[in-house]
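Hey, can you fold this one?
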Amino acid sequence: MKAANNRLLIKCDKDFKNNHTFSDGTTIKLERNVENLNHRETMPVQGVLLDTYLDVPRESYIIFHHNSIHPSNEIFNHSKLNGDEIASGIGLYAIPESECYLWKKDDLSEWLPMLGYAIGERVFKPYLGSLIGIGHTKIPDTLFIKTGKYKNKIVHTVKAADYEMVFRDTNGKEERLIRLRTYCPKYNEREEILFEEKELTKDLLSGKLLVGLTEINCKKYVK
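Sure. Predicted structure:
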């Protein structure tokens, strides 16, 4: 089975995300759909790459959009799965390249962005007062970029460029990463980085700003 142009052929365990593995190997079931209407948190977003025309190794792990597991992308007439796999909720999907964000070669590798994307973290001004329990202040429409041309720099983005992916990593635990679109140096009308925030980058390097996912776990940048 070969993937068509602009599509990635992916095998997805639709229930993989709904489990958590502890350090001792014990795995428990997570009921994500109970009173949670946020599909970004509840829907499957990861699978194993079977075939693509891109320069990404087969059998790599892929993270994709939370609405990609849809019958319009599903392959029903195939012989790649056995009865046990089908019964356990595993399916084959031809997912558009534009909906695939990150890939990882194996359990020991780091997540890397697909073409047209970058990984980032939010930027915060630290609370310097004496009161306990006061969170740090998030700077809106800014991200600290961890990959690509703007790596280790803070940039100003368009509105709603901050897309936080929720997935179960290869260690069995829930992880979260932020992705944004960037095609630099090529032009694309969907580019989400507007310009580099040079002064904020200087403040970050001097320890005046914090980066992270939330106001609780953010910290100073360390090279």
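The radius of gyration is 19 Å. Let me know if you want another pass with a different chain boundary.
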